[in-house]
Specification:
This protein is α/β, with parallel strands linked by helices. Helices cover about 40% and strands about 10% of the residues. The chain starts with 8 loop residues before the first helix and ends with a helix.
Length: about 240
């Protein structure tokens, strides 16, 4: 299903940038697995690693999914714990000579990652919200980023392309929208959807998933450029 990084110590010694996929373990409706966000983060990391000289790290598979707690199987850690995991990984990499780390985030609820990058030197968050907007438009996705929050057109398309065996039948009729979610963090997602889906997975295609990944690989070059500019300014 996922390709685990197999860099040797010698290969790692020459790396300047490491990539850490961060997923989650939470419900994704009836048609996608609990590990969807981890699978997507690893798929993105694998794609950019094939095109750019980076050291791919194994994923963080559990993160901040508290808004999904109403569904069985969802497991969360605190934002504080996730902060310390990333902070420890970055410190360990610096000790071995790798000064730059890209967090490939697969779960929108990991808000703390933005603060980690905000207060750190040599860290980047990928894809950014703006990057996702550009990629979605270029790949021809029909649902807006806000409407397509969870287990919708984007996530289903990526898995249809990269891991079609993980997409269960029924996504074609699983659409559910919740355009007003102003109290999401207080009430949890179950206040807005019965199925756990917020989006339109019926619009998903493998071709859209392929185009999304292709565009992300291109956009990753801009992320690396920003990291380099940040490093120069910090001197």
């Amino acid at each position: 299903m996922l390709v685990i990084p197999t860099h040797t110590a010698a290969e790692a010694a020459g790396a300047e940038v490491a990539v850490l996929p961060i997923g989650s373990h939470e419900q994704h409706g009836e048609h996608l697995p609990l590990a969807t966000d981890t699978v997507i983060a690893c798929t993105i990391a694998e794609a950019v690693g094939a095109a750019h000289p980076v050291l791919r790290l194994p994923p963080v598979t559990i993160s901040c999914s508290h808004e999904h707690a109403a569904w069985p199987g969802t497991v969360s850690i605190s934002a504080t714990t996730l902060f310390h995991i990333v902070d420890d990984v970055a410190a360990s990499l610096r000790a071995s000579g790798i000064e730059k780390l890209v967090l490939v985030n697969g779960h929108g609820g990991n808000y703390v990652l933005s603060n980690i990058v905000q207060q750190s030197t040599g860290l980047a968050l990928f894809p950014s919200g703006e990057c996702w907007d550009d990629v979605r438009a270029a790949a021809g996705l029909e649902t807006s980023a806000y409407s397509d929050m969870h287990a919708g057109e984007l996530e289903t398309s990526i898995l249809l392309h990269a891991h079609p065996d993980l997409v269960r039948p029924g996504y074609e009729t699983a659409d559910e929208l919740a355009e007003d979610r102003r109290d999401l963090l207080t009430l949890g997602l179950s206040a807005y959807t019965e199925s756990g889906v917020v989006g339109r997975p019926s619009l998903a295609t493998a071709a859209k998933g392929r185009d999304v990944l292709d565009r992300l690989v291109e956009a990753f070059g801009d992320c690396l450029d920003a990291l380099e500019r940040s490093r120069i300014r910090s001197r």
